[in-house]
Write a structure and sequence with these properties.
With 614 residues, the protein is of the alpha/beta class. The chain folds into three domains: 320 residues, ABC transporter type 1, transmembrane domain (ABC transporter transmembrane region fold, Up-down Bundle), CATH 1.20.1560.10; 183 residues, Rossmann fold; 70 residues, Rossmann fold. Helices cover 63% and strands 9% of the residues.
Length: 614
Amino acid sequence: MHPRSPSATPEPPAASPASPQRSGWAVVSSLWPYLWEYRTRVLLALAMMIAAKVANVGVPIVLKDIVNALDLKPGDPRTVLVVPVALLVAYGLLRLSVSLFTELREIVFSRVTQGAVRKIALQVFDHLFSLSMRYHLERQTGGMSRDMERGTRAISSLVSYTLYSILPTLVEMALVIGILLVKYDIWFAAIALAALAAYVVFTVTVTEWRTHLRREMNTQDSRANQRAIDALLNYETVKMFGNEALESRRYDDNLANWMRAAIKSQNSLSLLNLGQSLIIATAVTLLVWRATVGVVDGSMNLGDLVLVNAFMLQLYVPLNFLGVIYREIRQATTDLERMFTILHEHQEIQDMPQAPALQVARGEVRFDNVRFGYSPDRLILDGLDFVVPAGQTVAIVGPSGAGKSTLARLLFRFYAPQSGRILIDGQDIAQVTQASVRQAIGIVPQDTVLFNDTIGYNIAYGRPGASAAEVQAVARAAHIHAFIAATPQGYDTQVGERGLKLSGGEKQRVAIARALLKNPPILIFDEATSQLDSHNEKAIQSEIRAASRNRTALVIAHRLSTVVDAHQILVMEHGRVVERGTHAELLHGGGVYARMWALQQESAAHHAAEEARA
């Protein structure tokens, strides 16, 4: 039977449609450095593969001698069993050698394949964390995770097929055709070569045509996966708006598109298999016919007929396998292509060569004429200048869209300013390593997203390796220890996906504890209380004040009541600082801050009156 490719699991590139497509062999060559690290194992496995193929070709030759030895005329005085015994033993040993060398090759090479898979997967994972915030805001998690899954799976197939299927198949074909050419009529070799050429041309042509069907199937699969993951990540929103049927319908639309592409791909595969079988069947029939004619006219004996037939059956298998190999290589390179595209994604933010680590002595932060926009036509910060003195708390306030939260992203070097400098203790953060900058800064964000693990793990994430006593100490400082201790599993309590099992106030306290455990000289509070009610806001606020003591703190806030104790308050509008001073000074100035304060106080009074009436 003609071996059929497994019905290809739909896969790759749904992301970045504009990403350049690399040739199949360019993708294969990208794997070579990872394999060459295990060069001794690679060469040993190649030697075993060649030994297996030589033994495999020797089997029909010994079989021919056995048949001729048994082809005795009546009355021949020779004993039937005497001559073939050695040949039978040789036949059995050759058969065993084929399996022995093949399995030894697999044992030797398994570490090479799995080592390459592990290293590439880890390299892609690490590279993703080296890419800028811009890339991660634009990517789609579902499609990218599918790309990585398919890519790592394709490595095993690609390595196995290219190094240990194509080469042995060519070796076996060369041996068989060489023996036919030397020992028999030239027509035997001519028919075998013609069949080989026709088979290869047909397989390559049809497989190239099928490649776009595979890509379409992969694209639709990634889109369906993205749709499903996006809906599940927004489970609460879907349920609250009663849109389960809408999401199911949209997911099914993607699945229907994938199904149509998969059916076309499978039908084209059947056409390819049928054409390959026709070429092989024609060649085998012609070769057996030539051998039969030779036996009849006396130019060949019965053993020769058996040898030619065995060779053809033996050649038929690698020829068929060559077709499967080529199809699988094309499919695997399509799957691997997107993962290597991720690996070659440009790093927008990079450390300078031999960049030193940031040395923090005091913790002063300075923004020096910083200009920045997420896109060239939309400026967020326009010549921003301010200083956060070491050990002091500076608050940044202003309307939404003023660029407040952008400050934290620039300070962490998630983005680079178009011009100007950001300095910590006089050192330009663009001139030092990113890791050292981030190590010096802790943050309590507006929306604390926790890992789907335990409370203890999420607090300890601030400093992996911290002892249980240290974790409990910062939990007490953040006033969350009592809550944790009251739960049945204590610090082993699971927080759920993105921390959804905890309330907003509990998540913020975990974030504060995590930042305290990191113990950085600089702390950022980015709208840390904006999503809390008044009671929780006041409780968290006292913890923020305690955490900020003796540290340089940058407090980004919308509610002015949370920053009245700051050493200095900066008021931002349209990417610029328009006012600065203490709470009392700004109120006395009667400017933007004073108007914002009056509006918020009026709103708070109105809200309190409504609550009293209720």
